[in-house]
Design goal:
The chain is an alpha/beta fold and 362 residues long. 42% of the residues lie in helices and 21% in strands. The protein has 11 helices and 15 strands. Strands 8-7-9-10-11-14-15 form a 7-stranded mixed sheet, sandwiched between helices. It has a 6-stranded mixed sheet with strand order 1-3-2-4-5-6, sandwiched between helices. Helix 10 packs across helix 11 (310-318). 54% of the residues are buried.
Length: 362
């Protein structure tokens, strides 16, 4: 059943949200709803778009691929949906991509698998940088700053993890490094002992990870400590999510990550952090920040287009240049990618410390 997060349904512009309200990623989903709701309330308080208030229509995907397809189908069946904020999970977006392409409604996504915007689906637009950039930052920082060359790549076997693994292996190759171990695992694993033992046996002095779900990060981190693995760790954004850090505790202290959102990266991210903490009494992370930016981008595009027609919105999104969001400065290309940079951060005693931001031109 579609849940409306606005009490004023008449004469509104409807934005759909496919979200992990239930299932193993429900906590992350709650952050996503917070970010989207905060943006929506700010937009409406400023007068809305084209003189109309935005209305958020939420569909639960139950943290699954089939649930994602069903959630999109329900939103597409509802009259008047102007655009949709889709999932942050690449594998969920991959599953629903044909449905989105058939419906022809602009959809903002948070999945970072580079292929998602290159599969002949002109209706997907990414509110995060893709992993062709994250992999280059992970590789460069690990090799040139940490001076580590014995790499173990640990990755989920889903679309996100496999895409990230391939991208990281390619980025390391350009730096003259061949990983000593490449090991996949299945999402929602409860025991990473075989993976950790393989790392230990490989002699790796640095671990690069593309792990989809924060609970998996927590279990993996604890088992690394329990089995005495001392390697440095440079991970994808899941290693510095609030959920992962709460679950892992001290086991994640000292770990490096790359993050498209971190509170200290810019004036925009600092302001957003203050607003989010005041509103929700929580620290924001990428699950909330990307949804906040996605809502703002859609509102900007609809306003610029002066229309809720799909083609007009699409044209307005790809025309956005130099728009500063909390995730970075957006310059969309015709494939739907808006960002090309990542922050390098470190977990210092349970707090994320900003090290530097790296942007790419292509």
């Amino acid at each position: 059943m579609t849940v409306s997060l606005s009490s004023h349904a008449q004469d509104t512009i409807k934005i759909g949200l496919v979200n992990e309200t239930t299932g193993p990623n429900a906590e992350a989903g709650s952050y996503t709803v917070n970010g989207a709701r905060l943006a929506l309330d700010e937009i409406n308080a400023a007068g809305g778009v084209m003189g109309k208030k935005l209305e958020l229509k939420l569909e639960d995907n139950q943290s699954t691929n089939p649930g994602t397809v069903l959630a999109f189908s329900k939103l597409f069946a509802e009259k008047g949906i102007a655009a949709i904020i889709g999932p942050i999970r690449s594998t969920q977006t991959q599953a629903a991509s044909p449905t989105v392409a058939k419906a022809g409604i602009p959809t903002m996504i948070g999945g970072t698998d580079p292929s998602l915007t290159k599969v002949n689906n002109r209706w997907l637009f990414r509110a995060r940088p893709n992993d062709s950039y994250s992999s280059r930052v992970i590789a460069d920082f690990g090799v040139n700053t940490l001076k580590k060359t014995k790499w173990a790549i640990i990755h989920s076997t889903d679309a996100f993890g496999s895409g990230g693994m391939n991208a990281l292996a390619a980025a390391l190759k350009t730096l003259g490094v061949t990983p000593v171990l490449v090991q996949g695992y299945t999402n929602n694993s409860q025991d990473f002992t075989p993976v950790v033992l393989a790392i230990k046996k490989s002699g790796a002095d640095v671990i690069g990870t593309y792990m989809t779900n924060s609970p998996d990060v927590g279990i993996f981190a604890k088992q690394l400590k329990q089995l005495g693995v001392q390697a440095e760790w440079v991970g994808s954004p899941s290693v510095v999510t609030d959920t992962a850090m709460k679950l892992a505790g001290p086991a994640l202290h000292g770990v490096y990550g790359i993050a498209d959102f971190t509170p200290e990266a810019s004036a925009e991210s600092k302001a957003y952090t203050a607003k989010y903490k005041e509103r929700f009494k929580l620290d924001p992370d990428v699950y909330s920040s990307w949804a906040y930016d996605a809502m703002k981008v859609l509102a900007l595009a609809i306003g610029n287009a002066k229309s809720t027609e799909p083609e007009a919105i699409r044209k307005a999104i790809v025309a956005i240049r130099g728009w500063k969001g909390v995730e970075g400065t957006y310059n969309f290309d015709d494939k739907g990618d808006g960002l090309r940079g990542y922050n390098v951060v470190k977990n210092e005693g349970g707090k994320v410390s900003f090290i530097k931001h790296i942007d790419f031109k292509d």
